[in-house]
What we know:
This protein is mainly alpha-helical. The protein is built from 5 helices and 2 strands; from the N terminus they run αααβαβα.
Amino acid sequence: MTSPPIWSVTIWVASRAPATPKRPGQRDNEDLLSFVNRQNTEWVKATRRLSPMVLRTLLELGGRETQRHFEAFDPNEMGGPVSWATGDEPAPSWLDLARELTEH
Length: 104
């Protein structure tokens, strides 16, 4: 028997996760996965209206800001908790960053 792809396991687990607080813009009775997928679809549709010049400018600005952030970032510094890994205890900043990269 072969294992299912990790993304299908992740989606299955997320669909069975306990209810979380409703996020801004989340519809009543909309689960987290549906909410994220809808938000992504809406963003893609909205950015189709932007000119190539505006998109390049946004990418350039965002790239500069991201670079500044990571140049000042100490990955070994203790940060806030990462619930799935440390519960309520502080975690190294690199772990929080890894969580952000996998979620976005």
